[in-house]
Records
---
Amino acid sequence: MSASTYAQQHRDRFVEELKTLLRIPSVSTLPQHQDDVRRAAEWLLAHLRDLGMTAELIPLEGGHPIVYAQSLHLAGGPTVLFYGHYDVQPVDPVSEWTSPPFEPTLRGDDLYGRGASDDKGQVFGVIKALESFLRDEGRLPLNVKVLIEGEEEIGSPGISRWIERHARKVACDFAWVSDGQLYAKGLPCLVTGLRGLLYTEVEVRGPSHDLHSGQHGGAAPNPVNAVAAIIAGLKDRRGRVTIPRFYSAVREPSGEEKASWERLPFREEDYLRELGIPVSPGEQGYSILERRWARPTLDAHGIAGGWTGAGSKTVIPAKVVAKVSMRLVPDQRAKTILRAFEKKVSKLASPGVEVEVRELAGGDPVLISPTAAPVQAAMRVVREVWGADPVFVREGGSIPIVAKFDRVLKVPTVLFGFGLPDDNLHAPNEKFHLPNFHKGIETVIRWMERVGTK
Ligand SMILES: [Zn+2]
């Protein structure tokens, strides 16, 4: 037989096992699900051991454990590191789900359930590819390390630090991450860039206690006004961030890359309609895809403080906090930008207030060369399995771990997701298109054969 034939013959069982994993409500952000998160980790651990891999749970202080497995039997052979996550997003509003989020339900070819696509279905697909080799041929075509974390949906705080300290344990030649989508149904894509994220909290303090605006308005500093002025001053009317040297490290995408984006089935009119906006207010001189993928930006997410309840209260609050983040692109560095941001914010502070910036999360952007050998191999295999040439795209969002693979392990990552753009990630009625599950498994099998020793 072959690994592919094995996978074909065990399709139904694979889906049943995935359902078992989906029934575990491993919501990482909610303390009441802590035991469930652990249960999902233990279930995967037992599953990987059952396949004959050496596996362990790696505890993270104050966090959810990493599931780590390996099979290193080819001395001198190449080593791949597979990454995924077993934690899921909360399910609210639960009343909008057609079937219960943790009771996986098949409707047509789609399996509904929280985590079906993000990321349990995809990471389990990788595991089933490994099983197909191990059960059919008794060995894998290359050395394999598997890293499945339980904190991706809360920003991967634990694993990012862990990687820094355990780079040798997870040393590899290249990495593979399946935690994403095709560009469109029938159009697979390989991701060649991710933006970084610098997330901050800006606290503005005025008087030592709340004041009455009738008695003190005009004489006392107002932190709400002050924070609004700070946010307003961080971007100009043309959509440019005003922080000095903010753009100095930004690398322009190549002409070739830009031309390939222009060939994508993306219409700006459709995008504006989908968002329900008349125009895009972003940086002038750049297409919408460039603004979302290759340009850095800055957004405020909320301001807490003062009076926001019903009716009026004439308060000048003592303190206000705003959440402000920046999406970063190569070769910007979160650390450098944080310092420049702090300086700019204190310059924008009006007289009489004190300002403090706290960093809540920071991750660097990453670029992956489309000509790297494992990416090229993926391109060929995706074409064979999906019947279409994959397009090379970037993503506006961040997967912090991929930046670590780039900066700490110094290896390229193949980013191939086999969900669909309408899988309802993080939303009610998340689903996974099962034909994609099986094609995903086949893709991983053929890729391993191609980059391995066979
Ligand atoms: Zn995910």
---
Amino acid sequence: MSAVSGAPVRIGLLGCGTVGQGVVRMLAGTAGATIERASGQRLEVGPVLVRDAARPRPGVDPALLTTDPERVLGDPSVAVVVEVMGGIDPPMSWLLRALRSGKSVVTANKQLISRHGSELLRAAQESGTELRFEASACAAIPVIKVLRESLLAAEIEAVTGIVNGTTNFILTEMRRSGLSYADALARAQELGYAEADPTEDVGGADAAAKMAILASIAFHSRVLLGDVPYEGIDRLQAEDVDMAHDLGFVVKLLGLARLVEGAVSVRVHPTLVPAGHRLAAIGGPDNAVLLESSTVREIMLVGPGAGGTETASAIVADVLSILGTHRGSFLHNALADAGRPILPPDEVQSAFYMRLVVADRPGVLALVASVLGEEGVSIRTVVQRGQGVEARLVMVLHPTPGVRVRAATVRLAALEEVREDPVVIPVLGSGEGG
Ligand SMILES: NC(=O)c1ccc[n+]([C@@H]2O[C@H](COP(=O)([O-])OP(=O)(O)OC[C@H]3O[C@@H](n4cnc5c(N)ncnc54)[C@H](OP(=O)(O)O)[C@@H]3O)[C@@H](O)[C@H]2O)c1
């Protein structure tokens, strides 16, 4: 850290959009004064990289705006680089350069950290600088700090999260207002909870990146985005949400990270959550993360998982944490690799909800049951609703390894009596995750 006591700590910003402007506003407001009183150090915004420097940003001195990354990366007075631009490259090469030249880095970039986090941590460790990324998972909720510091010795065994606010809002609206998936998505876009291109959110990639980061920290292991199989909510229909309700469940897009006999299992998919479960109560755009360990039992953190000021709060906290970290302390960029293997997703056991649209004629249920039986899958509950020529067959299956349910699903989909691709959703609890 190049700052000397008494001199302001200069922060260079890479990006000044929703989050970057939140950081500038926060430091210019009462938070800046509070930080100075509490830490004895004044944080000062230095050069700010954007694509279009001619466009004014509220509260940002136009003289600080630049389109030249050199003005941030090559400025020896910049002690901390805050990356809030997004994308993989150029941020990756710029952040490596910043770390190697003695600048600490704070980033909100989940896609970058979930792919290249270990490489960046190694660069920080080698150069004696710091890398922080609290805002990359669940924005304002201080889950990484809690896992990394408060629960370091708690031996976390499971992290279960609603880590994407857009999909949680859509699922809440589908249940509360009976909207179709498409109408609930349109409403989320109207209210600013979903981007014009919502693919990353509704397809599950955003949640998978966050779960890779949380699992790495919780289990002291290297979990990359590519290790996390994910599925989004875009194939869900209002009738699945209603049927689940009738069976006593709420549908949520969950991230599930588990230690199963020493191996790591992380995945993201729509999940049936029992109505009485504490995650079932998290509605609207909120995020929640449930941490489980035999030491502390259950700890749940809930709050906003997005937003300019909310995310800025985590970024400013990371800058402060860097200022308060002593050289060589145990929080100093540990690579955190306990060498755990990654469990193949198909070996994970779970109960499942299965909805089939079938020909409404005698013998079909028996045929379905025999296919399931041959694949080693047994039925816990079944509800049949006839609608003339077609019937809905909704089942909850007993806990089974995913590979068997997948095999049964392929065989069922090929039957002449089955009229649409089966919808299969894991159920939380009851054998899930081993
Ligand atoms: N928004 C949230 O609620 C939220 C929550 C958690 C994490 N994050 C993460 O925070 C990061 C920023 O998000 P945001 O919502 O603030 O994005 P944003 O509003 O789109 O802002 C991006 C900023 O980066 C600048 N930028 C982008 N590419 C650039 C390039 N190649 N060269 C120079 N400047 C470039 C843009 O410049 P111009 O202004 O000139 O276009 C803009 O100022 C992302 O990684 C995002 O995933 C966001």
